Automatic annotation (TrEMBL):
Taxonomic superkingdom: Eukaryota
Protein name: Uncharacterized protein
Disordered: annotated span: 264-296
Sequence ranges of Basic and acidic residues compositional bias: 268-284
Annotated source species: Panicum virgatum
Compositional bias ranges of the Polar residues kind: 287-296
Amino acid sequence: MSRLGLIGWLDDLEDADEDVAEIPSLVILSEPDLFERGWGWQRLLPYKHGFIEWHEFKGYLQDYYRKNAEQVNALIMNLKPDCYEWSVPPNFNASHAAADLCFRREAKLQSLPRKLSRKDIKLSKAIQEHARLKLRSGDESFLAAHGFVCIMKEAELMCQLVQCKKFDPTNFISFSNQIRRSALNLMLHNVDKSTAIPAAAAMVGLAREAKFARYVLAREDSESYMDHDVCDMIREGTAAVLTMLEKEFARDTTASNVGVLLGAPTARKSEEPEARTVTKDEKLAGSSLQPSEPLK
């Protein structure tokens, strides 16, 4: 779409009667002024293969993170999006606070009257174990803070979904678990902050969408289904981003805390593992890494 076409789209959008977001083409990223006017930085644009180069989209994720760097703390504190007057408490450990909340949300999720599947419970317990290790270590972790927030907000959405009587939530719960599994897998990699920023941005974006999805689920107005569709498209596109980043991290780094990633393929038996330093979390776990069956 040309700049002229984008301007026409914006004019139509501003003249529309419905107050519902409309996702623009990714080419709008090449027109910063139109992007600010038509979309802005509160919600992520969903990635679509072929519309923009992957490295360009990762650049957008880095910009999104810079614009929303404090949102992980706001989400931990459960602040409203329009709450501008707030500050982070002294000595605030975001990853510790997020791990604590995440651990509690998983306990609530497991206690729901509607039974979770064995697969769901296995993932939930794996999340709890990683949160427990993080709480015991007390170390600050950039990626863990964002990952736990993403997982926690998906758990809150799942708690609401299982009580939903409007539709069968099975597929939505499965999709939330896909996001949660990806977020956990990404946390298990040892990467520097600059490498982790695109993943952190995607997880913050997903956490905000999960929070918005809960609001949409509670609505009864005629436009709620349109907001739900937009939210769903953003979540699907961003979940695909997490999957792509998982593959990049798996190719470029080694995972800590577990022998294999959840849902990831195991290494071929002919490949000899490289020697590496045992992490603090592994020492806390009381054993070295051992290969295990991935979650299916």
